[in-house]
């Protein structure tokens, strides 16, 4: 009889293995990383969401005859270095991939690496969550409402007669509200005088729809997409606390603003893998209302462009210094290898350079409003 107690070695689960890989890859690129129990749980949730998405997309790929020769959409074909860095940034912001519309894993094919890069796009619910969390003054409440043609809505702006920005809103017929004519967001604070009313017109929503590269989401779900535009426009008015700003916030915000510089994702990108090898550096310019404008549009309006001439008359540096510094800081802090890859392909010394005459040609608008 063997008196020695038999020791059973427990193998880590797949989600635990994913968490370990994320920590290892991030540590090898950026620096040592230690996750809290909450962050470990968020990492495991992210694994479940990504794994489910990959399996679903692989089934569709296998059934699509036009994609039968494409690489299988599976873990062994995923660029884990990029995924590790992007995962940590989302986890540090407290985003939970198992909560609907917090994170959208979108794969696209990177021909240079011959692997799929996973873009972890932040959904409108996730945007609302982390913007509240990082706010200079956390709002008491944020109300989002679409306004229909049969509703009664009257904005009350701050004036000599009203110290508080407010509104009057009445749904006259809950079962026949008509068509969407716009929307509003109302951000409430402890001090009512700081309350902010954000108006989003039907034209604003149409601009976002037209900016999308396809109608894959807009055509079947117009109301939902209009609501997404409303949330993003409203949360953009929340001031971020400088003391809360970290590398993760900067990375996620930068990904949203210049994601077209890294990749070209269509509205239905979660349904097909994209080849981005031929993409050149693209930079978009956004005005004070959050709308994308070309250089010529801003010049025609008499506004200052974000293009500053360099010694080489054929080159420009964009956008202005602050955002350029953000990019450089991100590269230094995060070790964002994808930017280095783009620079190598484009032959530029810094990512914010692009030939002026081709500036508008190469700019792209993010498919998500």
Describe the 3D structure.
This protein is of the alpha+beta class and 369 residues long. It is built from eleven helices and ten strands. It has a three-stranded antiparallel sheet with strand order 3-6-7. Strands 8-9-10 form a three-stranded antiparallel sheet, with no helix packed on it. Strands 1-2 form a two-stranded antiparallel sheet. A hairpin with a 7-residue loop joins strand 6 and strand 7. It is globular, with a radius of gyration of 23 Å. The termini are far apart.
Features:
369 residues; alpha+beta; 3 domains; three-stranded antiparallel beta sheet; 11 helices; globular; disordered C terminus
Mean pLDDT: 74
Considering DSSP H and I runs of 4 or more, what fraction of the residues is helical? Answer: 25-40%
Total helical elements: 11
Structural class call reads alpha+beta
- Detail the poorly predicted runs: 260-336, 341-369
Q: What is the β-strand count? A: 10
Cα end-to-end separation: 70 Å
Shape: globular
Spatial strand sequence of the major β-sheet: 3-6-7
């Amino acid at each position: 009889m063997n008196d020695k107690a038999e020791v059973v070695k427990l193998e880590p689960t797949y989600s635990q293995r994913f968490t370990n890989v994320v920590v290892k890859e991030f540590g090898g690129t950026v620096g040592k990383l230690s996750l809290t129990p909450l962050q470990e749980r968020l990492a495991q949730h992210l694994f479940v969401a990504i794994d489910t998405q990959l399996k679903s997309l692989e089934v569709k790929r296998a059934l699509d005859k036009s994609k039968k020769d494409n690489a299988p959409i599976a873990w062994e074909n995923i660029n884990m270095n990029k995924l590790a860095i992007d995962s940590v940034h989302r986890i540090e912001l407290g985003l939970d991939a198992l909560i609907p519309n917090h994170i959208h894993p979108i794969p696209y094919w990177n021909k240079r690496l011959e692997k799929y890069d996973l873009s972890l796009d932040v959904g409108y619910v996730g945007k609302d969550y982390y913007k509240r969390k990082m706010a200079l003054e956390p709002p008491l409440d944020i109300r989002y409402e679409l306004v229909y043609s049969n509703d009664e809505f009257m904005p009350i702006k701050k004036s000599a007669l009203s110290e508080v920005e407010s509104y009057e809103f009445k749904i006259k017929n809950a079962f026949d509200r008509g068509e969407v004519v716009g929307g509003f967001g109302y951000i409430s604070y402890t001090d009512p005088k700081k309350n902010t009313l954000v108006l989003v017109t039907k034209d604003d929503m149409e601009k976002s729809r037209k900016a999308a590269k396809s109608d894959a989401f807009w055509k079947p779900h117009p109301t939902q997409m209009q609501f997404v535009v409303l949330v993003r426009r409203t949360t953009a008015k929340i001031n971020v606390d400088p003391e809360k700003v970290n590398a993760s916030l900067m990375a996620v915000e930068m990904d949203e603003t210049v994601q077209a510089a890294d990749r070209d994702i269509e509205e239905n990108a979660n349904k097909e893998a994209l080849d981005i090898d031929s993409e050149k550096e693209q930079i978009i310019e956004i005005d004070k209302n959050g709308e994308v404008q070309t250089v010529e549009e801003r010049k025609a309006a008499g506004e200052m462009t974000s293009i500053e001439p360099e010694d080489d008359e054929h080159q420009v540096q964009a956008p202005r210094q602050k955002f350029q510094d953000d990019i450089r800081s991100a590269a230094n802090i995060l070790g964002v290898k994808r930017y280095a890859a783009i620079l190598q392909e484009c032959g530029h010394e810094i990512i914010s350079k692009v030939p002026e005459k081709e500036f508008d040609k190469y700019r792209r608008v993010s498919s998500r409003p």
